[in-house]
Amino acid sequence: MKFKYVLIIIILSSCAVNTTKLENRSPYNTKGFALIYNEDDLKNESIRGKLDNSKIQISISSLPTNSLVKIINPATKDSITLKNMKKTKYPEFYKSLITKELAKNLNLDNEIPLVEILEIKKNKSFVAKKAKIFNEEKKISNNAPVANVKISNISKKPIFKKKQKENQEIFILIASFSTYNIAKFLKDRIVKELPQYDIKKLKIKKIKDKEINLISGPYNAVNSVKNDYIQLKKFGFEELNIFLND
Question: In whole angstroms, what is the distance from residue 228 CA to residue 216 CA?
Answer without folding.
Answer: 8
